[in-house]
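Ticket #4471: complex job returned nothing on first submit. Input attached below:
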Amino acid sequence: MRGTLSDRMGAALLMAPLLLFLVLAYAWPFLGVVKWSVTLPTPGLGQYGALATDPLVQSVFIRTLRIALIVTLVSVAAAYAITVVWVRGSPVQRIVAEFCILVPFWISVLTRAFGWVALLSNRGLINTWLQSIGFISEPLALVRNEFGVIVGMTHFLIPFAVFPLASAMRSLDDRVLLAARGLGSSRMRTFWSVFVPMTRSGIIGSALIVFVFSLGFFVTPAILGGGRSVMIAELIYLRIFQSPDWGLGAAISVVLVLFVGALMALLFRYVRPKQLV
Amino acid sequence: MQQPGRAAEIKAIGIGKSFGSFRALDNLTLDIGRGEFLTLLGPSGSGKTTFLMILAGFVKPSDGRLFSDGVDITERPAEQRAAGMVFQGYALFPHMSVEANIAFPLKVRKKSAAEIKRRVGEMIERVGLRGHETKLPAQLSGGQQQRVALARALVFEPGVLLLDEPFSALDKSLRGQMQAEMKRLHQETGTTFVFVTHDQSEALALSSRVAIFNHGKLLQVGAPDEVYDRPANRFVAEFLGEINMLPLKGVRAADDGAVGLCEDRAVSLRGNADAVSGNAILAIRPEHMSIAREAAVGENGIAATAIASTYLGAATRLDLTTRQGARVTVSVPNEVAAAALSKGNSVWLTWPAEKGFLLPDGG
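Support reply: We reran it on our side without changes. The output follows.
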């Protein structure tokens, strides 16, 4: 990032259109939301007070955090395994892994959510099959609950978790792994005590990305949760479009944005941005 | 290599390695003695590093067998051979402190906490890293990282220590210091050292024996003075240092060596005339030739004209051409060079009979 002043001015000018777009498309409307949260229905911080005491809002917040945490753990673990194959596997394994990582990006989130409904519902593929082989007599509740939401979100987020991990694994010096084995460490031990710790920055980056994405999920929980596992984004939607209680919806939005902002600040503090791509 | 605390004796028989159609190593047979300091020397791509990787167990040979203390270890995986290894660039564990790096091979071997603490402490003392125990590798200088790598590779008392160009990243003065330190560690531990380098002066300075590689073949093994003074062929002669080559005619065996005609003057050599007769190449190192006003009868000498000199501080390098047009370089005291250039440039080059050696013509 060294350079003369005019270089840096040039860089700033090149980025200016993007910054302008972000201000117009996000920052300005968000300021409007902040304004609603302190003016509707009456001016003051009443909505934030209500937020702190409303049991429904609190239970949705807690559910959102719980789901986001579980989704993060499962996604990062699964992505880790896929990334190991993608980055360090044989040429054929690499192609298969790359295919598995890229294909989900071509299918819309809505299609995928309905795909999971088809698989997981009471008369879906999984329950029908398990019943036909006599493994279960009553269908399992796989959807319209938290389980379904977690499955759908994890499936959506695994590819996003892959990239920070891949970047960390690619920059790893192979000789360090050889050194560990040469010093008498088994493959298993080398993996756990050398490989995994050396990809720590990738794991942190990956987990934060998945967690932040999870917090704002709307379509997947709405479809796979069936109105019973409402997450925070859906709650905001309900407050704005159905109650209508714009002030409360806006206050929840502001809290969510601040929370995500704090997480992002944490992310960039521990992980250099270039490790995320 | 399986018995800690005891130097290993290694025997490689007919080792070969192919990567696709590329023959990286061909039919290598070599004995590495107990407690020896053997250097594998050669240009890049000569097969020296491939052989080291085969010794470590990271590369499986395509043919041949490898024995350690009489036991066939060809199929044994690296983690069970446990040769100590120092990599180019050190390959330290970046997330572990100096102490944890050095303790790693002992932890893997499930030694007791007390023993680990004692042995790591001894090793830190031995390589002079006291005070740096809790630092991460990134906080150390190149020389200190090198010491951690050496300590980590020696702490579990391996039968053999393998070193892959460990000094290539260090500057010249630090390099000399680390070389001395490695020699000391070799003497103190008594372990067999196998050291890979492409730096011939490093090889000559450190080793008890040098093995010279080129194009996947082992060309010669011998003590440093042996390979330097009696190279088996032209490649070895040239790789180990600057060398003058003069065509020699009518070579035939004589009393204790050979005689031949060099630029129409009779010259004699000692000791290495075997298998050469007729035309050959006479090879002499620059530091073994001197400048004289006249060559006495019976003394080895040819006439030459000085054309250029390069001042090197301790000596001067003088470039000359012989009457028949061969280029010769000699290393002489500074004042001799000045005199040779001022005196109409025409001088005699002389050398002792035992310092010249024969190489097959064109080979």
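Chain A touches chain B through 19 residues (CB under 8 Å). Closing as resolved unless it happens again.
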